[in-house]
Write a structure and sequence with these properties.
The structure is a single chain. By secondary structure, this protein is mostly beta strands. The chain is built from two helices and 18 strands. Strand 9 and strand 10 form a beta hairpin. The N terminus is likely disordered.
């Protein structure tokens, strides 16, 4: 589930679009924090800036978008086709002074590959509410930042909301990670080195039972790398839609590399998750996933008002421990695996954007009734999607 949170050097520090493949990078002198949205998206715009005494300058931005989808082998509780609201969100951010804040509110949906779709009204109600991100930060200088509130989770690479990502659907690896957590984060940056630590409630469990740490290094002007760990530090028996028992008791490790050229970018990353056995909370055997993904994007055309971009994502994820008794199911049955391919042609003109998407998921070594289709026995799913909207 995440951004996903790629919290070291790619997090937004100016506003929700401060880093993009169109070449806008976060200011060199500002520390980065997962309390603000991270950035893998292609869409860019500029916020409105207003003065509020005694707060000072506050950036105001908004996004409104809708999506449509048709897919093969829908599950019994899923849609063969639908149209829905993807985002209707307002962002307020103060990014100067000792005390800073970030507020993001509205309705949203979070479609992802290989899973059933939940409409925006229900997704908002059953996940993070109408204020999914809300944090206050103390920023004493250009190196340190202390944040508290509802922040982006550690772990994974992709972001929570559609418009923040280069693809409409989140990927298979994202499904193993959390999106938003309530807690604390301290981040530090010195030159090319970035680091952060966090104490939070993991998969939105309302218990401070997770910690995380990250370390990133900017190798040169075009490339950087990071390693991230986050995971449960004590058992938690919560088991809800937004706080699944297995994932909320897991450990997540990521290694991420990113390279950006003039017209294209590529980000390969690795992910490993581990769920230890804990019979006291109903986890009778351990389980794990191992995955790899490559996200790349090519700018076909580019101008001051927008352009046409072609993002591509390739993924593979597998789960282990099938031979053990009572092995938990993290994918499509114990020991199952899957790969996916997603392409998302994107066009933006000023504050308007439109993009289509074609994706395919192939599952292997599935268990009966645990994959796709009416009976759960189909092993593949194809989707075609459309998203269009406005950025303010």
């Amino acid at each position: 589930m995440r951004i996903s949170s790629y919290i070291i050097w790619a997090t937004l520090s100016g506003w929700i679009y401060s880093f993009s493949v169109f070449g806008q990078n976060a200011p060199e002198d500002q520390p980065l924090s997962s309390a603000q949205p991270l950035s893998t998206q292609l869409l860019i715009t500029q916020p409105f800036q207003l003065e509020f005494a005694p707060l000072g300058s506050v950036n105001i931005s908004a996004v409104v978008s809708g999506i449509g989808m048709a897919q093969t082998n829908a599950a019994p509780n899923d849609y063969h086709a639908y149209a829905d609201l993807a985002n209707a969100q307002l962002v307020l951010q103060k990014e100067t002074g000792l005390i800073q804040f970030y507020l993001q509110g509205g309705y949203y949906s979070t479609p992802s590959l290989g899973t059933t779709y939940q409409r925006a009204s229900l997704q908002t109600k059953e996940s993070f509410g109408v204020l999914p991100l809300a944090s206050v930060s103390v920023v004493p200088d250009t190196h340190w930042r202390l944040s508290a509130g509802k922040i982006n989770s550690f772990g994974g690479y992709e972001n929570t909301f559609t418009y923040q990502n280069s693809n409409i659907d989140r990927g298979l690896l994202w499904n193993q990670t959390s999106n938003v957590s309530k807690g604390f984060e301290v981040s530090y940056r010195e030159g090319a080195l970035s680091s952060a630590i966090t104490l939070n409630d993991g998969f939105y469990s309302n218990q401070l039972s997770w910690m995380g740490a990250s370390l990133g290094y900017q190798l040169n002007a075009r490339s950087d790398a990071s390693v991230v760990w986050t995971g449960a530090i004590k058992a938690n028996s919560t088991n809800t839609f937004i706080t699944p028992l297995l994932q909320n008791n897991s450990q997540i490790f990521n290694a991420i590399y990113s390279y950006r050229a003039d017209h294209w970018s590529v980000t390969p990353y690795l992910q490993y998750t581990y769920v230890p056995a804990n019979p006291s909370i109903g986890i009778l055997s351990s389980a794990q996933t191992m995955g790899a993904a490559v996200l790349t994007s090519y700018q076909v055309t580019r101008s001051a008002t927008g352009g046409f971009t072609l993002p591509l994502r390739l993924e593979y994820i597998g789960s282990g421990n099938k031979t053990q008794v009572n092995t938990p199911n993290l994918l499509y049955g114990p020991g199952s695996a899957a790969w996916s391919a997603t392409i998302t042609p994107t066009y933006q003109y000023q504050r308007t954007f439109i993009r289509g998407e074609l994706s395919y998921v192939q599952a292997v070594k599935t268990s009966a009734g645990q994959a796709f289709g009416a009976a759960g026995n189909a092993t593949n799913q194809a989707r075609i999607m459309l998203e269009m909207g406005f950025l303010y």
